[in-house]
Amino acid sequence: DYGLREADPDVRAIIDKEKQRQFRSLELIASENFTSRAVMEAVGSCLTNKYSEGLPGKRYYGGNEYIDELETLCQERALAAFSLDGKQWGVNVQPLSGSPANFAVYTAVLKPHDRIMGLDLPHGGHLSHGFMTPKRRVSGTSIYFESMPYRLDESTGILDYEMLEKTANLFRPKLIIAGASAYPRDFDYPRLRKITDAVGAFLMMDMAHISGLVAASVLANPFEHCDIVTTTTHKSLRGPRGGMIFFKKDPVLGTALESAINNAVFPGLQGGPHNHTIGGLAVCLKHAKSPEFKAYQNQVVSNCRALASRLMELGYKLVSGGSDNHLVLVDLRPLGIDGARVEKILDMASITLNKNSVPGDKSAIVPGGIRIGSPAMTTRGFTEKEFVAVADFINEGVQITLEAKKSVSSSKLQDFMKVVTAPDFDLKDKVLD
Ligand code: PLP
């Protein structure tokens, strides 16, 4: 039984290169993070070998006594991480990732072609919330369900609750989906609940991006107002790549919602759960109850505010004029450049972020903005001071992009890259193994 270096040097070499890339670069993708060594140990363990279709105590395979113990522990920790009472909320920790978790909810509470409303993708929503273009139903969600997206108020960059209310009253959706992939503000859950109740729909919150911030009570609590809450586990929560679905144990609905969701995950959409992921998730959820985790999430938000302030000081226009959470969305259109070019130039200097559409964009292929997130570099030990420097680097990259567009010399780019890739450039590697 050989280790990877002996058994497969090719794959080992690729992993080593990726590790170096992660180590070297400023990771600013808002949906990424560095999980802990302990989580990675669980993910890389013998748990991957075991089949355990079903739920704890009700499996379709033998030999599951320890897997039952693990999944039960993971469920308990998931409820504890969000301070939920097991009599009022249940959780399924088996979804393979965020999109499958969302689709499981849809198949649990909807019939094919029932109506849904989620935030439009060009306004910050996620594909799995029902994205479609005028020409094409892009996401499976929009193929199997009838989707009417809601949007931001383009003048403020804030969710247009009034328009959502009007549209919901006309469209009469069966499910309203809150949550986003690129929205720098928190959600008004009481208002969303009121809109949802008026049309007799379910309210689901997809807190994938912000679940770490919610666990640390840095943002509003969706559980007080929603029927269902889904999340990925690998973004601000800092766990392994996976998904969870929380469902309300409603006195009126009884166990109907619980059974529908559990059955939608298995046997509806999945087979055997990824027990190695559930092991890693249990480790991450234990950490989510620690004072260090709360301090980390507070730092994520402070860092993002420092980044936002510095960018605004430098004259940048931010969608919604700032940020309440872990990300900022910069509108580059006033400068006459697009996000794709800036992403590329910054990538050359090992600054990793992503191009993103901003409200009012004409094309999603050449979007007018960039999305910048603070969770990953906060894990690496960055504080406000470093995030001010990050804003300055991004600014340099944008200036170089502007110059490159005017075909002025590329020597500035070389200088810039020399600074950010120099060995003494302090990346504070705290977590990477
Ligand atoms: N929901 C939201 C809000 C997301 O931002 C994402 C991914 O970025 C997902 C769901 C999908 O997660 P996954 O990529 O794990 O399917």
TrEMBL record:
Function summary: Interconversion of serine and glycine. Catalyzes the interconversion of serine and glycine.
Stated family: Belongs to the SHMT family.
EC number of this enzyme: 2.1.2.1
Record's protein name: Serine hydroxymethyltransferase
PTM-bearing positions, type N6-(pyridoxal phosphate)lysine: K235
GO cellular component, one term: mitochondrion
Pathway per the UniProt entry: One-carbon metabolism; tetrahydrofolate interconversion
Cofactor(s) this protein cannot do without: pyridoxal 5'-phosphate
Residue span(s) of domain Serine hydroxymethyltransferase-like: 4-394
GO molecular function, a single term: glycine hydroxymethyltransferase activity
